[in-house]
Specification:
Two copies of one chain form a homodimer. Chain A is an alpha+beta fold and about 650 residues long. Helix content of chain A is about 30%, strand content about 20%. Chain A has 14 helices and 25 strands. The N and C termini of chain A lie far apart (about 55 Å). Chains A, B: Keywords: Hydrolase. Chains A, B: This is Glycoside hydrolase family 127 protein.
Amino acid sequence: MRENTTRPTVLPVAPTRGRLRPLGLDEVRITGGFWARRRHTNATATLGHCRDWMERVGWTGNFRAVAEGRIDRDRRGREFADSEMYKLLEAMAWEAGSGGSGGSGSTLDADAAALTEIVARAQQPDGYLNTAFGHPGQQPRYSDLEWGHELYCYGHLIQAGVAQARARGEGELAKIARRAADHVCATFGPGGIEGVCGHPEIETALVELARLTGEQRYLDQAALFVDRRGHHTLADIEFGRAYFQDDMPVRDATVLRGHAVRALYLAAGAVDVAVETGDDALLAAVVRQWEAAVARRTHLTGGMGSHHRDEAFGDDFVLPPDRAYSETCAGVASVMLSWRLLLATGEPRFADLAERTLFNVVATSPSDDGRAFFYANTLHRRTRGAVPATDTDSPRAESSLRAPWFAVSCCPTNVARTLAQLPAYVATVDDHGVQLHQYADAEIATSLADGHGVALRVRSDYPSGGTVAVRIVRSPDRPWTLSLRVPEWTAGATASLTEPDGTRRVVPPGTADVTRVFRPGDEVRLELPVTPRWVRADPRVDAVRGTVAVQRGPLVYCAESVDLPDGRDVDTVQVDPSVEPEDAGDKVVVAGEVAAHAEQSDEPWPYEPLDRPAVSTADRTQIVLVPYHSWANRGPSTMRVWLPTTRQRTTEP
Amino acid sequence: MRENTTRPTVLPVAPTRGRLRPLGLDEVRITGGFWARRRHTNATATLGHCRDWMERVGWTGNFRAVAEGRIDRDRRGREFADSEMYKLLEAMAWEAGSGGSGGSGSTLDADAAALTEIVARAQQPDGYLNTAFGHPGQQPRYSDLEWGHELYCYGHLIQAGVAQARARGEGELAKIARRAADHVCATFGPGGIEGVCGHPEIETALVELARLTGEQRYLDQAALFVDRRGHHTLADIEFGRAYFQDDMPVRDATVLRGHAVRALYLAAGAVDVAVETGDDALLAAVVRQWEAAVARRTHLTGGMGSHHRDEAFGDDFVLPPDRAYSETCAGVASVMLSWRLLLATGEPRFADLAERTLFNVVATSPSDDGRAFFYANTLHRRTRGAVPATDTDSPRAESSLRAPWFAVSCCPTNVARTLAQLPAYVATVDDHGVQLHQYADAEIATSLADGHGVALRVRSDYPSGGTVAVRIVRSPDRPWTLSLRVPEWTAGATASLTEPDGTRRVVPPGTADVTRVFRPGDEVRLELPVTPRWVRADPRVDAVRGTVAVQRGPLVYCAESVDLPDGRDVDTVQVDPSVEPEDAGDKVVVAGEVAAHAEQSDEPWPYEPLDRPAVSTADRTQIVLVPYHSWANRGPSTMRVWLPTTRQRTTEP
């Protein structure tokens, strides 16, 4: 690994070492296209939406109630409600620090300052800060590490403080965060409480604070928390200790398991600790867990976590589309983990998964207007459900439509902070040059390892189109390498790269390098094959046997009932994979059959002897598919990603 | 409907009207075969196991603690723990009343009397009886109708009291139950608390008490509880009001929904109310709900409830084998409902489902030794899990092995009371004669509607064999009708019936009648085709597309890893449904392939373009299947009911 020199950039994640050096939000701007639209909506709608809902449901008021000594009577929301305030403040900081995507930086700063003031007044003299514990009439501090989420809330507070310091210079929020972190070190450090939090998050936050401040003790405390986990300091709850990864030490585990968000946050924190301490064995352990989870426990969308009951990873290959949990926050956490592994190793597979997850999980959660969210992201919706009330919070989104807020409302602010920091995922630098990982209309201006300035302008309508044109705006007068990720989904198709001199070559999945003395005006063009393609699953994914899906570039597609004739539901659809899917704008058209309603009438018992002949009178037709992330924006509907094939209609099983 | 005359028989369910009249445990004895063995184990092992565990985990002690005024400090177990005591007492009563299957009736009576004395001392002067509420230091009575289970516990207390009165003559337990029922009527009757219990059960119990005592007010109270439900007297919990069927009135619902046990207990109570009040519309509503649930929400085993998170029915056709919840208690409740519908309507389809559920859910739960139980009954187990400790209770059975006791331990006592009353499900009488519904070695002695005595002796090794021989032991000297159920699973195969005069005829699924003047020694023989057969599912059961299952008679079969070569797991198996399965004793042998371990190695990503060729080097072999109910009695194993077909190995999706 190489050392990263400290630079005053707006870095969401700033490892001091690693294969790649990240760029700050002041070095990369997303200027148009898919993600620019999402970021604009995030800045102009979602941030305010979250702020208003937190005020309305009383979670902001919890901080005031602590300051005014009446929290025992007035506290609202679940035990982790404080964290939504911190995630919103983090999102506001990154948004302000990236120059704003439509929101005004000064308005954001004013909003953040007002909220910060409310938070500040709730902090205790010794640094303790939580509205659910430790005040008169409440349970004592740290009396419920399994479920209390106190350290989890600090984690998000610290991440917000770091974001504010990096984006706007160290202010009040960063000071609150440091006081809280000092309190944590004093309370849970050597000689203190021998415990960990039921919900990991503090680990990655403390490492980031150590990176910001250079203070070793924050890193030591993070390492201590990582090492302590798996030694049964937490109680054996109904879901088992694997739920919060306390069943075995992090470095002994071979696969991600238990509650998906917890597992992924912990893994991200373990990577941070491993990178900062040079603990290659720990890093290798997390890579191994990531590999096993991706190979066996991940939906086609990148979604992780198949169990509703405990929001957990299931057994290998248990990936039923109609019970996909695929929590939005697990998608966010997966991107966090993949990004850290990419920085540490430079391997494009981590950017591949991040891309898949961003387009098909993170982008799926918010509605077009940025004011409603999917908590879970099923791959098959069988009933249309009802339109959720827009003026009330939802228990959890199991409707076919997004909801404006939840009793457990972790996803809106998590999506917000992810979109706010998204430009940082676009590119990195290393000793050889610049690497592009995610494709979008973007402007990049940074310096190479030797300090020479370099600037690029990326033009692409990705993922609608597959052309990525990288124009050199500024370059030193010496050779360097521009590296472009060739996504894994191009396997079996043909991607090509054209150098500034017109040389064109086929590039396999992985990384395509162009090394030369670049001149301003030079252009490197990557052509990615974004024609739609049929995809099948490993036969061990039992739940999708006999079905196929369509992917187009990084986008997973789905059938949605609003595109079917006569108000039919998606379960009338069967597709013919012997006919290639065809582009139709951003939609895709496939050949298949739609069964008449009459054929869907019930038999009294849904099982029958195999030798009984089956009949079909379904009509051959064309079926329109839409990007999965766009579904459920046109009213209640049914939807499915994995589509049965027409061959399944026959008497053959 | 016809009126049932009151007779002093040991009847678990004693409707005053209905198409069929049930027989008591003193009129039917199961003398050998599958169910006799199960009942013997139940009487000699399970009843004592439950009694000992309840003492050990302190649930019996809760009653003592109430009597001694120390319950606030000493209460153990969940809020509904009292109900296990009552279900055990009910099981003991039916077992004692059926002459004992191996346990001594007098020992059972002594055990029951001792437990009854403990319960009696905990009852309050006004009839209130619950160890979790209403005592100093506890929450007030009826302060948590959503989750408190107070009325649910009364329901089981009343059922135990009725059982004792019917089996042994009205004694102390029946008196406790009547005092509790009077308290319920006074508290929740007109002018009282306008509420229902979060967990239905009291409804069916109060109707049975009305049948026992002839007191109208118990029936009125049951009808009131049924009618009150669905009007939002319960809070809107996280799972939604459908969880406890409070989302809409019982008579408006079109399908069973929400928590499966609650839904089925409520439906059973609604049938009881409908029968006793002549409310044909209510009965029709429940039949409609049953039909929809059976057609769309029931596993091949008869198992109901696919959701782990809230133990609930899912959407139509959401029946993933590897996330089958199929709770044991839902199986018990389904049998309760089907039995009541059979008595009310006389339609054999209800006995068909009861048979399927008894053999494949209720019989699956207990281990061979009757001292460990499945809480949930999955249809696909992918990992071998660990051997659960025999000296501790299990959170819930998600292991591959049965557990001796659970934190929520509803299934052991529910299985016990079902097996104890099982002989009552065998036969009924009506104005025309005798009906046989379930087949077992049995002796039946009862009277026809006109009062004439009739006695039958049934010989069968069902379900191993398909021959059911019914010998007339006693008969009036006038014609009457012997009706034999021809199970639905014989459809497409040939069942035949031989009359005493040697006449043989093919009989279709439904009911086969023989009407004649029977003489002692006459024999009617039913030959059922119990050769194993391939079964497929409706294509809308997405999770089992491309797979087949084997059924043999009423038994569902499964592949279990302990029968595979080289310690392979069941997910290496693919079967060839073009070859008919073959009998091998109680096992079944099918043709297929078992993949080598090497073929199971991971790709880094489990999805791939459809056009990539697939290869197979699996060896053609014979695969042994065992009855599903018998699985997991040979150590940790993997198991699956639905088996992929070899056709799925090819490049075809």
